[in-house]
């Protein structure tokens, strides 16, 4: 096997909400971001598809500065799912086809495939989103982002408001889509057990910095920094 292909890289990134950010993400990885509220986890995700920009430093996507991409293309290739599903009014299909339609890429059959990925019946395509449960709406939000065929998924507390069953379903398809549907996932979570279940590597953030990063099991069982040791005991 050859060397892992770098997908994302941050070099000396600083912003109003972050400082001294350095990391890289390779193809096939799920990265989990943990840390206390206000540590900068969500702020970091927003930089990666230019919902915000750093004051200094550089972020690269496939070895090219993200500022060199057209912003609509960047957000197509680096998709984001939030804690709230934020679906548009209308049917499930209306939501799924919104992004692809901007690029004249939508085909009806795509909708069925997307619902299969997120474990929803294909007859949901014609359902009004207001008829769906919270868990179903979040799965449609995932499918809507996947409809753009992103190479990277940014997930911000996507299961924190869901019941155990929906958490299990979403975790299952997150693991299933890496390498098949997307190249890498970066996921903010407050659930340490979830980080252990999903993360190949984990970034621990505190006070706007990545204090420690590495193999998830090593990081969570043998933390090197006092900050992380204290966080894991809380």
Could you walk me through the main structural features you see in this protein, from its secondary elements to its overall organization?
- With 234 residues, the protein is an alpha/beta fold.
- The chain has one domain (8-232): P-loop containing nucleotide triphosphate hydrolases (Rossmann fold), CATH 3.40.50.300.
- It has helices spanning 41-48, 71-77, 92-102, 108-117, 134-146, 164-177, 192-198, 216-221, 226-233, and strands at residues 6-14, 21-26, 30-34, 56-61, 64-65, 78-81, 152-156, 184-188, 201-206, 209-215.
- The strands form two sheets. A six-stranded mixed β-sheet has the order 6-7-8-3-9-10, with helices on both faces.
- Helix 3 (92-102) packs parallel to helix 5 and helix 4 (108-117) packs across helix 5 (134-146).
Which stretches are poorly predicted, pLDDT < 50 over at least 5 residues?
none
Distance between the termini: 41 Å
Task: Give the radius of gyration.
Answer: 18 Å
- The level 1 CATH classification is Alpha Beta
Question: How is the biggest beta sheet arranged?
Answer: 6 strands, mixed
The CATH topology corresponds to Rossmann fold
Which structural class matches the secondary elements? alpha/beta
CATH superfamily: P-loop containing nucleotide triphosphate hydrolases
Mean pLDDT: 94
H-E order: EEEHEEHEHHHEHEHEEHH
Helix content: 25-40%
Number of structural units classed as domains: 1
Shape: globular
- Please name the CATH architecture: 3-Layer(aba) Sandwich
- The percentage of residues in β strands lies in 15-25%
Query: Strand order of the main beta sheet, please?
Result: 6-7-8-3-9-10
What's the assembly state of these chains? Answer: single chain
Question: Helix count?
Answer: 9
